[in-house]
Automatic annotation (TrEMBL), chain B:
It is found in: Cell membrane. Keywords: Cell membrane, Membrane, Transmembrane, Transmembrane helix, Transport. Residues 64-259 form the ABC transmembrane type-1 domain. Belongs to the binding-protein-dependent transport system permease family. CysTW subfamily. The chain crosses the membrane at residues 12-34, 70-93, 105-128, 140-162, 183-202, 241-263. This is Putrescine ABC transporter permease PotI. It is a multi-pass membrane protein. The keyword Electron transport does not apply. The lineage of its organism: Bacteria, Pseudomonadati, Pseudomonadota, Gammaproteobacteria, Alteromonadales. Pfam families: BPD_transp_1 (PF00528).
Length: 319, 275
């Protein structure tokens, strides 16, 4: 150790730079392993599966195990590639699928707006609360989402059903004489989705709003801006990133949602996640299920890139 | 001033209304778990018999054991993968490899579950076709699926912690001759341990909770708890599920409270030390 210090004193800056460099080199020695393990894992279990979905979406269905024909065939000394676009044509021509896509997009739009309308004021109130209360309030918002998702949906089955809590209370009060059909309607699906996805809207909004510089609002107020005006011109534009992140965190998964329309929805709540599930598990039509997934992904590519851009921007900001 | 007060009160009212919206269904769920009657929402007197029924239900108990096993190993693997990825994202020089890795690792965060599940199932079927492995889908395949999507969450949690960290301490350790591996385990890991624990717990709860991906990735060999609950709930409400829900809510609240309390105590202690 002594020698080390001594040499450090003798040749000052040059050694410092050189040492730093060798440090970097040593630091990156295990680089290949560190980057390689997660890289290979994701390549194998994330990227490759998508290639397979794409492949199967282009193959023709067959009554076999697995239920589709091979895409590549080697016959007569030539490699034959059989691309079957029939599944995609079916997806775009069959009104069932088209309506399911439209139903999912409509459902996702309405519930995203619903979550925003409920979540924004909540996130705002939490961000304005005294510092020591904020952690507790966020914890309270997040707590339901750590319990089971399925059970939170199930809770609404007991509340909305014909002999459920709401109908029982209304009939007891004498407001209605016959139960209102709420379970197995689109209304139930809206409620269920807003309920389960609300925390995912509040969290990014809170993260954004809590960093809002309070002095800006004070300055606006000092200059005579009314609070609603301040909100529209300062608070809302500055929280745009949080609004985008929260909306995408709700919108994207809701488009593919299966559990909520299955449990709370009725025959008219047609959503693509449910249709895909049925195509795969009930009809065992793997090629059509795959092309449904590919089209869904194509529809979601814009929201996904929007979210990614926001995510990487906010990550870079932190550095 | 009065205007600002009015707005303040509007968002505060919304906050409390929202909290009631979030918690009322849970309380109703818990309340009716003590219902004597088999009809969940018709009150028939206080009883804890459904808890007894729950603990005699072999299928549910087996599923709980399966889910806990899968969740334990999946969250452990997710922490390893996610931490490595987070390390690459925050400590490595910008490169093509880093860019694709960070894109791939965070993609499952916003991927609809049906797509992830379907794609993994098709992969497993293909692999079984080509190499004869995995011969049967079950716990192993669910473990792989859960490790992959939980790693995304761990990577986000750990990378934000790594970014806040003062790198000079790691540099100092290496200046003093510690190998990168030693630096990582003796310096970095203790400093990011809260994030590692948080990531592990988050993965554990995500894995326990997942229905869609597990339904795709699993075979006849392994039925997880959400799969059992789902098939029972599909038939309608049942007080036994209310009892199960109550236990889950109780457990999660307990863990959340303990971690909050510990974090607060640690915070207080560090504040006292700095004073």
């Amino acid at each position: 150790m002594g020698g080390h210090q001594w040499s450090g004193i003798k040749i000052m800056s040059g050694v410092a730079i050189k040492r730093k460099k060798s440090l970097r080199e040593r630091f990156f020695k295990g680089q290949h392993l560190t980057i390689g393990v997660p890289y290979l894992w994701l390549l194998m279990f994330f990227a490759l599966p998508f290639a397979i979905v794409l492949k199967i979406s282009l193959s023709s269905p067959a009554i076999a195990i697995p239920p589709y024909d091979a895409l590549f065939q080697y016959a007569d000394e030539s490699l034959q590639i059989l691309l079957n676009l029939g599944n995609y044509i079916l997806v775009f021509e069959d009104s069932l699928y088209v309506n399911a896509y439209l139903g999912s997009l409509k459902m996702a739009c309405i519930t995203t707006i619903g979550c925003l309308l409920v979540g924004y004021p909540m996130a705002y109130a939490i961000a304005r609360a005294p510092k020591q209360h904020q952690t507790v309030l966020i914890l309270l918002v997040m707590l339901p989402s750590w319990t089971s998702f399925l059970i939170r949906v199930y809770a609404w089955m007991g509340i909305l059903s014909n002999n459920g809590v709401i109908n029982n209370v209304l009939m007891w009060l004498g407001v209605i004489s016959d139960p209102i059909q709420m379970l197995n309607t689109n209304f139930a699906v809206y409620i269920g989705i807003i309920y389960t996805y609300l925390p995912f809207m509040i969290l990014p909004l809170y993260a954004n709003l809590s960093q809002l510089d309070g002095s800006l609002l004070e300055a606006a107020a000092d200059l005579g801006s009314r609070s609603l005006n301040t909100f529209w011109k300062i608070t809302l534009p500055l929280s745009k990133g949080g609004v985008i992140a929260g909306s995408m965190l709700v919108f994207i998964p809701v488009v593919g949602e299966f559990v909520i329309p299955e449990l709370l929805g009725g025959p008219d709540s047609l959503m693509i996640g449910k249709v895909l599930w049925q195509e795969f598990f009930n009809n065992r039509d793997w090629p059509v299920a795959s092309s449904l997934a590919i089209v869904m992904l194509a529809l979601l590519i814009i929201p996904i890139t929007l979210f990614h851009r926001y995510q990487s921007r906010s990550m870079e900001k932190k550095i | 001033m009065s205007n600002r007060l009015k707005k303040l009160s509007f968002s505060t009212v919304m906050l409390w209304a929202g909290m009631i919206f979030l918690y009322a269904p849970m309380f109703i769920l818990v309340f009716y778990s003590f219902n004597e009657s088999k009809l969940v929402t018709v009150w028939g007197g206080f009883s804890a018999k459904w808890y007894g029924e729950l603990f005699r239900d072999e299928q549910i108990l087996d599923a709980v054991a399966t889910s806990l096993k899968v969740a334990f190993f999946a969250s452990t693997m997710a922490v390893i993968l996610g931490t490595m990825a987070a390390f690459v994202m925050t400590r490595f020089a910008r490169s093509w490899g880093r860019l694709t890795l960070s894109n791939m690792i965070t993609a499952p965060l916003v991927m609809p579950e049906v797509i992830t599940g379907l794609s993994l199932l098709l992969l497993f079927v293909h692999m079984a076709d080509l190499f004869g492995w995995p011969a049967e889908r079950g716990m192993l395949t669910v473990w792989i699926a859960h490790s992959t999507f939980c790693a995304a969450y761990v990577a986000v949690v750990v990378s934000s912690r790594l970014r806040e960290l003062d790198m000079s301490i790691e540099e100092a350790a290496q200046d003093l001759g510690a190998t990168p591996l030693k630096t990582f385990f003796y310096i970095t890991v203790p400093m990011i341990s809260p994030a590692l624990i948080a990531g592990w717990l988050l993965s554990f709860s995500l894995s326990l909770d997942d229905l869609v991906i597990a339904s795709f990735a699993s075979g006849p060999g392994a039925t997880t708890l959400p799969m059992v609950v789902f098939s029972s709930v599909r038939m309608g409400v049942s007080p036994k599920i209310n009892a199960l829900a109550t236990l889950i809510i109780l457990l999660v609240s307990l863990i959340a409270f303990i971690s909050w309390y510990m974090a607060r105590r640690a915070d207080k202690r560090s504040r006292m030390a700095s004073e």
